[in-house]
Amino acid sequence: MKLYFYNDKDLHYQKINTIKVISLGLIFLVLTYMFGVIKGRKDRLENLTPSEVEFIVLNMADTTRQFTQTKMINLMKDLNIRYPHIALAQSLIETGHFNSKIFKENNNLFGMKQARTRVNTAKGTQYKHAYYDTWQESVYDYAFYQCRYLGNLYTEEEYMAYLGRSYAEDPNYVSKIKNIIKNENLKSYFE
User: Fold this and answer.
1) Rounded to whole angstroms, how far apart are CA atoms 130 and 113?
2) Of 67, 113, 146, 172, which one's alpha carbon is 20 to 30 angstroms from that of 31?
């Protein structure tokens, strides 16, 4: 779902980042619970200094946006990514187990280039790869990629063959994917 608000200053509609809205709502609920119930003092929230509130909110927001492999796997499940163990293997290869510059600076989990002819969530190109505001947007973009190009593939073998032909420049890409799936038992995360 996309949400927009009308910007009176610039006289146009701007997209609202729904992840931020949900995160802020969760932060508010957690703060209310944390300082109302756990501390046993309803007035605790009102007695916080502005710097204490800012510290808590920034740290909470950071943890909701912070990447973990488990969060990525859960998002892939929620989005019903086809052959998610293959996509997970791709992310491990493309990011060097989540250590590459493209991942850390571009939030790009799959080594995606910015799409020109399909729906995508990329904000632009940096280091010859798409960049995203959040790692979640990278997963959404991969889901759009699957919908556009992989919808008519019905087996894992067809999917691998497509990746070998069209996704990566490395001639050993498919064998690397298969090795990571086997060696790291990636299918078990989706059973």
Assistant:
1) 5
2) 67
Domains along the sequence of the chain with CATH? 3-65 (no CATH), 69-190 (1.10.530.10)
How far is the C-alpha of 191 from the C-alpha of 186, rounded, in Å? 10
Q: Dmax over Cα atoms in the chain, in whole Å?
A: 63
**Cβ count within 10 A of residue 128:** 8
pTM above 0.90, yes or no: no
46-60 pLDDT per residue, tens: 555 666 555 555 554
Cα–Cα dist 173/175, whole Å: 6
